[in-house]
Amino acid sequence: MGIFAKEQSKKVVVNAANHGYKPEVVTFKQGKPAQLKFIPSANMGCMNEVVFKDLGVDVKLDGQKEVTVEIPTDQPGTYNYACGMDMFHGKVVVK
Ligand SMILES: [Cu+2]
Q1: pLDDT tens digits, residue range 27-79?
Q2: Domain for residue 70, yes or no?
Q3: Domain assignment present for 1
């Protein structure tokens, strides 16, 4: 990865009244810094927490501010995430 590597950024809307995370699957290219931004809505419910078990990430969503999670892209892989109750699920694919 050189200094010309462009960052990648994608958004996921969080809405407990609309089946959870939209889109449910987000894809990033390997080798470029990647940011996944969670966009809160008026209907957060138990989705006020997002957990990436594999990344050791556990962040709060207060329903106001968007929250950014840095996704490692040094190798291909799939990172699953869920709400704090492991009820709603989403997926990040690096390839
Ligand atoms: Cu939940």
Answers
A1: 999 999 999 999 999 888 889 999 999 999 999 998 899 999 999 999 999 99
A2: yes
A3: no
42 CA from centroid of ligand 1 (Å): 15
Which CATH number is 71's domain given?
Answer: 2.60.40.420
Task: Calculate how far, in angstroms, residue 45's C-alpha sits from the geometric centre of ligand 1.
Answer: 7
Q: Is residue 2 part of a domain?
A: no
Domain coverage including residue 16: 8-94
The Å distance, Cα 30 to ligand 1 centre, comes to 30
Decide if pLDDT at 3 tops 90: no
Q: Is the model's pLDDT at 8 over the cut of 70?
A: yes
Cα of 84 vs centre of ligand 1, distance in Å, is 6
Ligand 1 centroid – CA 65 distance (Å): 19
* b/e map 38-75, b = 16+ CB within 10 Å: bebeeebeebbebbbeeeeeeeebeeeeeeebebebee
